[in-house]
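Input (structure):
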């Protein structure tokens, strides 16, 4: 609707709408979060958690409105039809840009439970939104380098403990736990540094989703494997604010969780760890082939 305006002006308008939307919904979210802290009873916790999820979905819904307002996106999407909000899912995707998160929220909002991302601990300090993520019980992960862990072995396993603690809370309400398997955004430099065997992907890190399966595997309905491609180049966050994102290809596929991976300990069972890593690599090989097929069909 605002396509006639210059792109930078659309970016300013979208930024204002995003900011006002966040400020509007953060106060009721914080109020319900405070109430949840004061009422540590299971029935009250379940009800208040549902209310908070509804607030977050309303925030996403208005974001989807301004995305449509400032741009015209050609959505090529397959595989959206078989989800519902009564089941819990483990969701993963390839990762190229912060725009990936907005794309996933745009497509999956109110089609499945609220997506809960694994976040770097530093992001809790992002003004307003960091506190919103905390209130919504997004898991914040503290990442340690191999060098640091060599000097401080007592820190090993902290990510597993954080994941298990988060997943325990998720057992009372349906949830969609999200994890970018690559762990970081794809760039040519990172691809070369890793010597990745994939043409369009970084190497997957299987530990994150293995820990989720370890903590709540029986509760999960399926793994949702999402492939995202931007036919006209990977956009930045400013690009979507300005309405410059004009085409997105998305493929969603439900993957049944192999029964042999349930009730196992990724951290201590070496045979299971190897088998799980090989399974994840096969998923990534299929995703890489799908991305190549989409590129060749363009």
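Output (sequence):
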């Amino acid at each position: 609707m605002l396509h006639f305006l210059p792109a930078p002006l659309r970016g300013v308008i979208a930024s204002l709408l995003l900011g006002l939307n966040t400020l509007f919904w953060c106060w009721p979210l914080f109020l319900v979060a405070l109430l949840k802290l004061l009422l540590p009873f299971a029935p009250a916790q379940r009800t208040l958690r549902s209310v908070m999820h509804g607030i977050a979905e309303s925030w996403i819904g208005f974001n989807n409105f301004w995305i449509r307002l400032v741009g015209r996106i050609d959505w090529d999407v397959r595989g959206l039809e078989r989800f519902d909000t009564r089941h819990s899912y483990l969701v993963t995707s390839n990762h190229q840009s912060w725009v990936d998160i907005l794309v996933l929220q745009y497509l999956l909002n109110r089609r499945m439970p609220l997506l809960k991302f694994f976040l770097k601990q530093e992001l809790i300090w992002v003004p307003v939104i960091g506190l919103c993520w905390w209130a919504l019980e997004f898991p914040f992960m503290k990442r340690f380098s191999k060098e640091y862990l060599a000097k401080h072995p007592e820190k090993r396993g902290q990510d597993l403990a954080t994941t298990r603690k988060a997943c325990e809370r998720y057992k009372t309400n349906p949830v969609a736990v999200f994890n970018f398997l690559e762990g970081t955004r794809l760039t040519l430099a990172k691809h070369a540094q890793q010597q990745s065997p994939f043409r369009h992907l970084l190497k997957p890190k299987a530990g994150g989703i293995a820990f989720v399966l370890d903590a709540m595997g029986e509760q999960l309905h399926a793994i949702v494997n999402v492939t995202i491609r931007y036919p006209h180049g990977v956009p930045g966050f400013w690009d979507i604010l300005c309405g410059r994102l004009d085409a997105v290809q998305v493929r969603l596929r439900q993957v049944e969780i192999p029964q042999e991976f349930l009730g196992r300990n990724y951290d201590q069972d070496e045979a299971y760890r190897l088998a799980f890593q090989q399974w994840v690599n096969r998923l990534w090989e299929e995703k890489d082939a799908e991305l190549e097929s989409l590129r060749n069909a363009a």
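Notes: The radius of gyration is 20 Å. Residues 73-297 form a domain with the Glycerol-3-phosphate (1)-acyltransferase fold (CATH 3.40.1130).
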